[in-house]
Amino acid sequence: MIKKVMKKVLLGLISAGLCVGTAMAAPAAEPDTSEEVELVMYIVSDRPAGQDAVDEHFNEMLKQKLNCTLKVNWLGWAEFSQKYPLLFSSGEKFDMAYAAGWLNFADFAKKGAFLPLDDLLPAYAPDNYALQSEDALTQATVDGHLYAVPTLLGTYGVYGAIYRGDIAEEWPEYDGNLDSWEEIGAYLEFVKENHPEMEPLDIYSGNDELLFTWAGSQGYAAVDGRYLFYNTDEEHPQVVAAYDIPGIEDFLAMTAEWNKKGFWNKSALSDTDSTKTQNGKAALRFHNVDTYANVYVTHPEWNFKYSRTTKNASHLPYTQDCMVLSTTASNPERALAFWNWITTDQEAFDAFYYGIPGVTYELNEAGQFKMLDPDLYSTSSMWAARTTQLNRSQMGTPEEYDTMRADWEEEIQPGKGAERFASFVLDTTGLETPIAGCTNAHNQYWFPMDLGFTDYTSELATYEKMMKTAGVETIIESVQRQLDDYLAAQE
């Protein structure tokens, strides 16, 4: 009975939104808006076809508010891994960028890519700063300086299989869920045999989720989205490279078999199509619950389902989605005033994130949104702008969306289990050379093997050799020391 009451409370809190912040407000300052300027922002995603109209609508409001306009530049999914680092080494002048742990936020901060925000954020974005939690600000602090504005929306480190429920219902063995890798493989085989017009599994260049998803199903968390992992079930886990995860050969044998069965196309390593699941070209992909909700709403007739694969639920760091200012920023004060506005004003957030009422989206009486033509525009990809207070629920979101998140909240215990590691931030000082070498080796040798294009029975040893040559053992030693110190500080 108590659990049922608590779940209702959690569902209400999730739907209504809670203030997550504990930071004290600081004296505010007004930016000089006497001169009209153009703010330049970089986002990692494919540019929506209808972005021009959204920009025009939003900039009318922004010019009136802060006497400036916003230019958004996009780094597509098929190119961001190469182009994102160049943003901060080329000397290009721009103001803001999306950043995240999976984009190596801490590495770039240490290299001096971002402006420190210790004084700027409380002065020019005081309302946002007042909402920031102590944990969020700590996670965004590197070498004693605040380098990012963390998201104000709590998210979860849980991945799962997002798959076509309508096709699953055709499969005689389907029992309402895909509870194991064996069942996932059997479903993909059914798709291959009965729906030849589709790719069973959505794989494309720069977005290979297989290792990350499988490791999570074994209780292993990735270190900053890299090729190193640790078991969150262990009290004092040992950091290991991908080649040392128990069962890794079984995983590679599985993906090799999936390749032979044709579960992805032969050009997967160079495929640039990141929309196959939502456009009906693929039957299953691995991703988070928000992606599940989005594809479900886009095509309710396909009855998308979500089966959790991650063993241990936890919250993601607040730097999983964050905003940074470039050291080349021409207008840092105005940029932060802009950020303060869109993250604390509902009308401004709606215009920035959802676009134009009646053109790109509409709201119902409950304040839920519906995107009118997702192929034209489907919300902003600057996810760091979302807040618990302003982020709207989408019309048609399945009940399971809130139910699952409430279940995870019940499962997550502060300071215990996987949640113990939620605030761990890797310090890469002195590791730049081995990290660069290992990243290159991983990209060259792991991905083709991961997708079954090379023979793992010989290539796994080659991969291990090349990673060790590049210095992975030096990185492991440093990460282990930092992880041990982090856990010791909690005791």
Draw up the topology in text:
Elements (H helix, E strand, L loop, with lengths): L1 H15 L20 E8 L6 H16 L1 E8 L4 H8 L8 E4 L5 H6 L9 H5 L1 H6 L2 H6 L1 E2 L2 E2 L2 E2 L9 E4 L1 H4 L12 H14 L4 E3 L8 H8 L2 E3 L5 E4 L8 E2 L6 H13 L21 E6 L1 H10 L6 E4 L13 E4 L6 H11 L3 H8 L7 E3 L5 E3 L27 H13 L20 H19 L5 H15 L1 H19 L1
Parallel strand pairs: 1-2, 1-3, 8-12
Antiparallel strand pairs: 3-14, 4-5, 6-14, 7-12, 7-13, 9-10, 10-11, 15-16
Helix pairs in contact: 1-15, 16-17
Report Rg.
22 Å
In whole angstroms, the N-to-C terminal distance is 34 Å
Total strand segments: 16
**What order do the strands of the largest sheet run in, or round the barrel if closed?**
2-1-3-14-6
For the largest beta-sheet, the strand count, sense and barrel status come to: 5 strands, mixed
Low-confidence stretches: 1-22
Shape: globular
Number of helices: 18
Helix content: 25-40%
What fraction strand?
5-15%
Q: Output the structural class.
A: alpha+beta
| Mean pLDDT figure | 91
Give the key terms.
single chain; 491 residues; alpha+beta; five-stranded mixed beta sheet; disordered N terminus
Account of the protein in words:
The chain has 491 residues and is an alpha+beta fold. It contains 18 helices and 16 strands. Strands 2-1-3-14-6 form a five-stranded mixed beta sheet. Helix 2 links the parallel strand 1 (37-44) and strand 2. Helix 1 packs across helix 15 and helix 16 packs antiparallel against helix 17. The chain is globular, with a radius of gyration of 22 Å.
